[in-house]
Specification:
Shape: elongated
Radius of gyration: 27 Å
Mean pLDDT: 91
Structural class: mainly alpha
Low-confidence stretches: none
Helix content: over 70%
Length: 167
């Protein structure tokens, strides 16, 4: 009986140790990812306006965009402004209209540039938001693996100690 406890303890200890190492690495990578996202967003110096925000974004008034959720909020703000500017048309739709006019309509060409810039900004902000979620998906399991690994190591120690006392 002591030999089976010892083997189980060794196996649990080995797996537990691996998890105790892997979990903090995941936490570290998730945190460093978040810091990078914050740094990149801050470098863009995007600030919510002091006036003119929709009611659902009023809590962001005058704040800088530095987190994934703030990037998402600003992307939604951009989406609304873009819809107003383009009459709800997309870059592709405006491009088709421009081509249908022979490509010479300066107003449509300017509107197409506006749509392109707005949709590009929105896509970049949504990418930051998605990356923010990925850091959560890394840090959550990292914390869980650390806890499970520590519990496995403690159980392994108890099993190994128990088999030593029964030998």
């Amino acid at each position: 009986m002591g030999g089976s406890h010892r083997r189980a303890g060794t196996l649990l200890g080995t797996v537990g140790t691996a998890l105790v190492v892997a979990g903090p690495v995941m936490l570290w990578r998730g945190r460093s990812g978040r810091k990078e996202i914050r740094r990149e967003l801050a470098a863009q110096e995007i600030t919510f306006p002091e006036r003119g925000l929709p009611a659902e974004l009023a809590t962001h008034t005058g704040r800088r965009v530095e987190t994934g959720p703030e990037a998402h909020a600003y992307a939604e703000f951009t989406k609304g402004n873009l819809a107003k500017a383009t009459g709800g048309r997309t870059y592709a739709e405006i491009t088709a209209e421009l081509h249908a006019t022979g490509g010479e309509d300066e107003k449509l060409a300017k509107l197409r540039r506006t749509a392109f810039m707005g949709q590009s900004l929105r896509a970049s902000l949504m990418s930051a938001y998605q990356a923010w979620h990925l850091t959560t998906l890394v840090m959550g399991p990292g914390a869980a693996l650390t806890g499970v690994g520590a519990a496995m190591v403690a159980t392994a120690d108890a099993l190994t100690h128990r088999s030593s006392n029964h030998s």
